[in-house]
Amino acid sequence: MNGAVFRGEPKRSTAGRRTLALPPVAADAIRHHGRAQAAERLAAGPAWQDGGFVFTTTIGTPLDPTNLRRAFEVLTSAAGIEKLSPYVLRHSGASLMLDAGAGLEEVADVLGDHPAALLRHYRHRVRPVAEATKRMQAVLEGSG
User: Fold this and answer.
1) Cβ-proximal residues to 57 (8 Å cutoff; 6+ apart), any chain
2) CA angle 128, 134, 140 (to 5 degrees)
3) CA 81, CA 78: separation in Å to the nearest integer?
4) Using CA atoms in the order 48, 28, 7, 45, what is the torsion angle rounded to 10 degrees?
5) Cα–Cα distance between 72 and 50 in angstroms, integer?
6) pLDDT in tens, the chain (144 residues)
7) Cβ(18)–Cβ(112) under 8 Å?
8) 110-119 core/surface letters (b: 16 or more CB in 10 A; e: else)
9) CA nearest to 68, candidates 54, 81, 87
10) DSSP labels for 68-111?
11) What 8-state DSSP symbol labels residue 122?
12) What is the pLDDT of residue 144?
């Protein structure tokens, strides 16, 4: 992998293409996945279709969004988590980055979205909810 990330053709325009800086833990996970994918490539033999994608089917073809969503739902269900789609990770990422102190425009750039849309659709208050829960616990215990 040469460090470039390519997701296939942009849905709307070339404006959807952008360079992202990955945190080292994410870059390491992708490198690890690449090594595991090399084993899949060998197992697939001549059926492997190398399109240069990072995440593929077992024969190297691009993942179908519907199948990915189904697989994600199976994993979350097996983990005892309510039925969720992979898109919820986008919401979680935005909320956690904002809660960790990242600026609104910085998070919007990472998501490839407009800051106003980010606030309208993706911002879920994390820390204030946790703090409110602690205060409620104190009230219920009679110490608040």
Assistant:
1) 63, 64
2) 135
3) 7
4) 0
5) 24
6) 344 444 455 455 555 566 777 888 988 999 999 999 999 999 999 999 998 888 898 899 998 889 889 889 999 999 998 878 888 888 888 888 888 888 888 888 888 888 888 888 776 666 666 777 888 888 888 876
7) yes
8) bbebebeebe
9) 87
10) HHHHHHHHHHHTTPPP--TTHHHHHHHHHHHHTT--HHHHHHHH
11) I
12) 63
In the structure encoding, which two tokens stand for residue 130, read together? Answer: 């946790």
CA dist list (Å): 134 to 67, 96, 99, 112, 127: 40, 19, 17, 34, 11
Specify the amino acid at residue 104: L
For position 6, what pLDDT does the model report?
46
Give the chain's radius of gyration (CA, Å).
20
pLDDT for residue 1: 39
Tokens 């279709």 sit at which residue?
A: 49
| Longest distance between any two alpha carbons in the chain, whole Å | 69
Instruction: Supply the pLDDT for residue 31.
Output: 92
CA distances from 95 to 23, 84, 86, 125, 126 (A): 17, 17, 15, 7, 7
Strand partners, 56: 62
